[in-house]
Amino acid sequence: MRPSKLIGLLATTSLIAAACGQSVEAPAEQAASQEDAKPLVLVAGATGGTGSLVVAELKKQGYPVRAFVRDTSRAAERLGADVEAVAGDLKDAASIAAALDGVGAVINAAGASAGGGPDNTAEHVDFEGARNLAEAALAAGVGQYVLVSSRGVTDDDHYLNRMFNNILIWKRKGEEAVTASGVPYTIVRPGGLSDDPGGNQTIIFEQGDTRAEGIWITRADVARVCVSALAHEAALNKVFEVHAEDGEPQGDFAAEFASLSAS
Questions:
Q1: Residue 1 lies inside a defined structural domain of this protein
Q2: Are the C-beta atoms of 112 and 126 separated by less than 8 Å?
Q3: Which residue did the predictor score with more confidence, 76 or 12?
Q4: Regarding predicted confidence, which is higher, 88 or 14?
């Protein structure tokens, strides 16, 4: 549409609205409103140690949140009654598809837990679950899939594989399934996780999975990185490791995302 016609249309719209006693946003205000709109984010593993902090960080930053959980009662207790929770299972394609209705981004913080039973193994959760969610997200037109993985996934001889039924091998297979699915992705590989408060250290971004032991980061800082990735196009289609060191905490990770190589 030519600029003169657009201006005329806006003026006409304003006159009609005024006659009806309604207000109309100015073009600049409309643009700002659209720019500020944030996508609905589905969080898998939302009641877990990291997932619950992802939900809290999303709420803090003004994102609408939907928790994908097995038990909605537990979700209400852990996340608060104000968080929308939908029941489903990462092995159930129909429940995943239903949960993705209207969703613009996904953060998958689900992971197998020790003693979780035959349906909660690393193969089922970290590999098959990650794959199923990625394929459904692609079909639903989701704009970004953020996966919480782990350092050490490229080391088949890592001691965690011997201790926990090849958990890192299954996580790597989950990563590979996500990258192969075609959905735009961001894969975050944290070091050892702590429950200390976040926001007190510098977050170091690396690639290559060269160091896996003796490196730590708080779950809260992992949540900050995951949620920040939603706001930066430079985070798309990148795989990277993160850990924390003493130093000034970053207010934003734009420069770190931009420095990474796409996979």
A1: no
A2: yes
A3: 76
A4: 88
Residue 259 falls in the annotated catalytic set = no
Domain presence at residue 9: no
Q: Can you give the residue range of the structural domain that contains 189?
A: 39-259
Q: How far apart are CA 72 and CA 192, in angstroms?
A: 29
Helix/strand/coil for 148? strand
CB neighbours of 133 closer than 8 A, spacing ≥ 6?
44, 90, 96, 106, 108, 145
The alpha carbon of 133 is separated from its chain's Cα centroid by a whole number of angstroms, namely 12
Determine the Cα–Cα distance for residues 249 and 165; give it in Å rounded to an integer: 36
User: Is the pTM above the cut of 0.90?
Assistant: no
User: Which pLDDT value is given to residue 7?
Assistant: 34
Under 8 Å between Cβ of 243 and 191: yes
| Amino acid letter, 14 | S
How many whole angstroms separate alpha carbon 110 and alpha carbon 119?
Answer: 13
From the list 95, 150, 181, 228, the catalytic residue is 150
Tokens (6 digits) for 183? 């959905």
Answer yes or no: is 80 within a domain.
yes
Q: What is the pLDDT of residues 165-206, one digit of tens each?
A: 999 999 999 999 999 999 999 999 999 999 999 999 999 999
Question: What's 222's domain CATH number?
Answer: 3.40.50.720
Q: Kindly list the distances between the CA atom of residue 229 and the CA atoms of 112, 149, 210, in Å, as whole numbers in the listed order.
A: 24, 15, 22
Per the document, the length of the chain is 263
Cα torsion 152, 173, 68, 57: sign: positive
Does the residue 25 lie in any domain?
A: no
Residues 49-67: pLDDT tens digits?
Answer: 999 999 999 999 999 999 9
Domain count, the chain: 1
Start-to-end Cα distance in the chain: 40
Q: How far is Cα 198 from Cα 203, in angstroms, rounded to an integer?
A: 10
